[in-house]
User: Which sequence fits this backbone?
């Protein structure tokens, strides 16, 4: 019987940890000991009402056991690979679409991504690993295409990082050579790279102070076809839309763990209602609108998100969850880290934040950005998932919005509620959509109304499933 590559992590509350080489020195704050982090910080007055309607870990306000992906050594052992065999595998590069800001010395282009090797794995091995996440893959409800997708996602999760790898990039603008750059550092212990790299191309690439339109830049890695990507040259002034992806741009249903796993591993990615038309309408209406997509999905599976976004939504830059996490904030609040970086990179731009209420971090961090970056947050738009999906069994906390101007945020139910907004005019509210914000925990009726559907096996499995989804998306 084929053993699963992921059984060590999924079968226990704490995963086995295999030592890795020390990471390359990085300029970061001194790491502190991670502590347990609240999943939703749900107060006892709320959890006492909810009772068994939510998993016990969540009811206690504690993040369920943190699940990690298999270590490199575990992957090698399960596939029966030695270092000599791995050294003969071709190097692949995954460049994440980045952004560049204009400085007095030219464009400063953020280049980030992952260098890796694809270990050979049989279909049976991939199927066995995928079934840990989607146990029902053999059932009649799944097609061969579903099983093939699950293999592809699983294959991405078991890639092996290439450390200490030096990178060069060819930049092209409108099909013309713009610059050749050498990345200043080799890849780190997890095969990742992430730095701002300056470049100039006089007479070809417009200077940032000469245009108010976002320009596209092609990025190539010499001799490695998989390393092709785009960067976006963003002028100092204008509007940037930071859009979360799960349960706002695509149907994921993270709050229903079994559905979330199926939708992430085996089923085609599907847009949420008519959101593609809404974003395309904003693109046409707001000149120079910069689209920045924010997901806390691990970098190894980012390619599936990129393909989905570029097939359905306007082109734009990406932020993801890196593998090499060195600070408490990076581990537990990676969305906050990425948000702060893009705000600090473009201090003169206005930002529109688009997300949903099912994520506790968003409900805390997004209103906090208003005070942390005065004058930069033009609008916060939040889909009320409790009001639009009866399967969302978690309350959401609106207390963070109590002390900010109510004209700078809006809770909505359907994409049509926000479709007519024109950010270039300062729009943020659709007056016809009631808000009903109480500045406390809301969404309780949805939970109480669905408490009966939680069977005992679901209560046992839910913390485990939620742990995996938190690792991917929270």
Assistant:
């Amino acid at each position: 019987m084929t053993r699963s590559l992921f059984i060590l992590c999924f079968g226990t509350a704490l995963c086995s940890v295999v030592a890795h080489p020390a990471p390359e020195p990085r300029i970061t704050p001194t790491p502190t000991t991670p502590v347990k982090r609240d999943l939703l910080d749900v107060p006892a007055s709320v959890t006492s009402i909810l009772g068994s309607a939510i998993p016990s870990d969540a009811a206690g306000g504690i993040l369920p056991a943190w699940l990690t992906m298999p270590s490199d050594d575990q992957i090698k052992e399960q596939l029966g690979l030695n270092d000599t065999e791995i050294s003969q595998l071709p190097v692949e590069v995954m460049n994440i679409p980045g952004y560049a800001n204009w400085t007095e010395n030219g464009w400063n282009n953020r280049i980030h991504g992952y260098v890796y090797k694809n270990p050979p794995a049989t279909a049976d091995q991939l199927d066995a690993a995928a079934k840990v996440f989607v146990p029902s893959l053999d059932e009649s409800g799944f097609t061969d295409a579903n099983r093939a997708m699950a293999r592809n996602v699983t294959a991405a999760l078991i890639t092996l990082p290439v450390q200490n790898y030096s990178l060069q990039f060819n930049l092209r603008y409108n099909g013309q050579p713009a610059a050749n750059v050498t990345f200043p550092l080799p890849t780190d212990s997890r095969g990742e790279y992430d730095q701002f790299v300056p470049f100039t191309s006089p007479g070809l690439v417009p200077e940032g102070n000469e245009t108010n339109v976002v320009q596209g830049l092609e990025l190539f890695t010499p001799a490695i076809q998989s390393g092709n990507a785009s960067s976006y040259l963003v002028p100092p002034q204008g509007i940037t839309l930071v859009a979360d992806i799960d349960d706002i741009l695509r149907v994921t249903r993270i709050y229903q763990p079994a559905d979330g796993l199926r939708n992430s591993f085996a089923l085609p990615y599907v847009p949420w209602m008519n959101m593609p038309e809404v974003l395309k309408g904003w693109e046409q209406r707001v000149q120079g609108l910069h689209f920045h997509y924010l997901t806390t999905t691990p970098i190894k599976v980012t390619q599936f998100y990129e393909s989905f976004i570029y097939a359905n939504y306007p082109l734009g830059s990406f932020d993801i969850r890196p593998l090499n996490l060195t600070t408490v904030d990076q581990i537990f609040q990676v969305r906050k880290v990425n948000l702060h970086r893009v705000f600090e990179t473009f201090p003169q731009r206005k930002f529109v934040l688009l997300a949903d209420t099912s994520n506790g971090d968003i409900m805390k961090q997004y209103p906090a950005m208003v005070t942390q970056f005065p004058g930069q947050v033009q609008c916060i738009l939040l889909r009320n998932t409790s009001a639009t999906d009866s399967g969302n069994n978690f309350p959401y906390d609106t207390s963070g919005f109590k002390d900010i101007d109510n004209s700078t945020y809006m809770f909505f139910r359907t994409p049509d509620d926000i479709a007519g907004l024109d950010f270039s005019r300062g729009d943020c509210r659709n007056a016809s959509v009631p808000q009903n914000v109480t500045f406390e925990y809301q969404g309780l009726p949805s939970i109480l109304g669905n408490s009966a559907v939680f069977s005992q096996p679901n209560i046992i499995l839910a913390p485990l499933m939620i742990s995996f989804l938190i690792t991917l998306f929270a």
About this structure: The radius of gyration is 22 Å.
